[in-house]
Amino acid sequence: MGSFFSRFTAQLARFIGRPLMMIICLALAAGSIGAYATQDSLLIDGTNLAINVLTLLFLPILQATQNRDGAALQAKLDELIKVNKEANNQLIGIEDLDEERIEELRPAPVSVTDPHPHDAEPVG
């Protein structure tokens, strides 16, 4: 179930970030405005409609930005893993795996505290 859900949400996020989704949202917004124009409603209803339409239109824009930023970040991290001799190359591309498999590949925690912090050589 978890694997299906992970794949489903990843595919849904990719779809929502595509230009086709923006076209669908614009069509829905136009349909809503067209239906609203035929009714005799209050100003508050029009404001509500405008807010809902704007929210709907921002969804694919924000998702596309997040998809692009996530892909760029993963490419950069993969490159850093490739050039680091001590890094585990099995971690390249794990963003496409399900959560259980990612947890299996997660390295064991290590202590990052330096027992002699003042003995470090100056940088530069």
**Structural class of the secondary structure composition?**
mainly alpha
* Rg computed from alpha carbons, rounded to a whole number of angstroms: 24 Å
The global form is elongated
Largest beta sheet, briefly?
none
Mean pLDDT, as a whole number? Answer: 75
Low-confidence stretches: none
- The helicity comes to 55-70%
Strand residues, percent: under 5%
Give the terminus-to-terminus CA distance: 52 Å
Count of separate DSSP helical elements: 4
Strand elements, count: 0
Task: Work out the count of structural domains.
Answer: 1
Order of helices and strands, N to C? HHHH
Can you give a write-up of this model?
With 124 residues, this protein is mainly α. It has one domain. Helix content is 66%, strand content 0%. The protein contains four helices and no strands. It has helices at 2-16, 19-37, 43-83, 99-105. The longest helix has 41 residues, at 43-83. The chain starts with a helix and ends in a 19-residue tail after the last helix.
